[in-house]
Amino acid sequence: MFTRLDSCSILGMEVIQVEVEVNTSGSLPGIYMVGLPDAAVRESYRRIKAAIANSELPFSHQLITVNLAPAHLRKEGSNFDLPIALAILAVSGCLKAGELEGRLAVGELALDGKVRGIRGALAMALWARRKGRKEIILPLPNLHEAARIEGITVTGVESLREALEYLQGKAPRREPVPAGCEEEADEPCLSEVKGQLQAKRALEIAAAGFHNLLLIGPPGSGKSMLAQRLPGVLPPLSGDEVLEVSSIHSVAGLLDPERPLQRRPPLRTPHHSISHAGLVGGGQQIPRPGEITLSHRGVLFLDELPEFRRDALEVLRQPMESGCVTISRSLVCANFPARFLLVAGMNPCPCGFLGDPQRSCSCSPRTVRRYYNRVSGPLLDRIDLQVEVPRLSPRELVELPAGETSLKIRERVIAARSRQVERWGNATVTNAHTTMGKLRAACRLEEDEKRFMYTAAERLGLTARGFDRCLRVARTIADLAGRERVAVADLAEAVQYRSLERLWGSSRMGEVDYGGGI
Ligand SMILES: [Zn+2]
Fold first, then answer.
1. pLDDT band at residue 491 using 50, 70 and 90 as cut-offs
2. Nearest-angstrom CA–CA distance, 108 and 50
3. What is the pTM of this model?
4. CA distances from 183 to 129, 180, 297 (A)
5. How far does the centroid of ligand 1 lie from the alpha carbon of residue 363, in Å?
6. CA–CA separation, 182 vs 301, rounded Å?
7. How much distance in Å is there from the Cα of 218 to the middle of ligand 1?
8. Is 60 exceeded by the pLDDT of residue 512?
9. N or C end of the chain, less CB within 10 A?
């Protein structure tokens, strides 16, 4: 007897088709598992045997060979328990030919026959629809998330027996909770942050052009509060982006069961003790997404930037340019998307009080220099906006009025973004990431603007990259103002957001200017 049932597995961000083939032969009972399975898959026959016995279902007394095809791909995890068990039940005579046809099954089995939840159900359902499958059978805990994908029948099962009875036509299909009844989570509003007008303006520019941002300020000045409110001013994700971002979080097992679709740009705030693999992605044999992928199309906030491991920060450079990261492991190589907006926070000096009018700084110029040099220059070069976030006095905290709401700022951001979509002809390309040639042409600088930029570049000692970054920011400022051409005022504002050059010069090795302070 021979039967076959389709299943799938996740490799990196990709869903791969795996065919489960089961054959019975001879009269000696036993089971063979072939097709490059890992330890969890090899051991699955024990779980499957126990689950079938505890569900009081018949088990073939012949030699069973289970093949997972294609054989060259390594199969990982326990996702294949359910399809293997169903295929074994089919060859044992519980299911008729055709009852598995066109269907796809995935799920882990517990010894008592219950079906346990898996990672990546949403990505799998999306893939199955693309492949033209009529139905995917998966664990009940994943029904809510996978049912968000329209155009394919998604069936959730609680146990192996239920799956079998459903296929036999004896048990009804469970109806998923209809979509659209989830409320959006409340996002913190920028009006809750008092003062800090320059930083708020930088946040608006960052959101409009998807520019990376560095916030420099003493502890307690509100850097985290500002960073946490940046996703709230980003434009909402488009339909495709919602599925893309939700799939990533589904694969990482991070979807909120109450709100399986990630409709707003994500925010990730890893601690500085995070490992290299945790930040960019990694894993033992099969690569897993890291924080830069989890913040894809959203915000990655790295507070205390100089405290992060230098090697971890170094590897950020390549994905910041390309918007994706490739992780190679001994068996496979996987690509993950990583188009994130980096917001970094740092103190002005190790003690945090450099330039603070109320407290005195105890750091020597040498320690301050060492502190800044802990962050690599090429990484800082890729941060378009660098702003200072001073601590407010108690009086200012009480008396300053509440500022604009995130919603109001978001409207301007959306308008500026739509100008970019029109110009670049691609909804996912922004001023921060278009090619420099196109960007320069779009600035349409005239004599006055050019003269201004040359003087500013000389005075600040801008590197070539720093110069280009200023042009990108100026283009976004002009887009926010609805200007076709970049004007001197836009350039003058853009140059203001180069705090580090102002402090350090291009080499960042100069003496600290205590007089001006930060
Ligand atoms: Zn200090």
1. very high
2. 13
3. 0.88
4. 26, 8, 21
5. 4
6. 27
7. 9
8. no
9. N
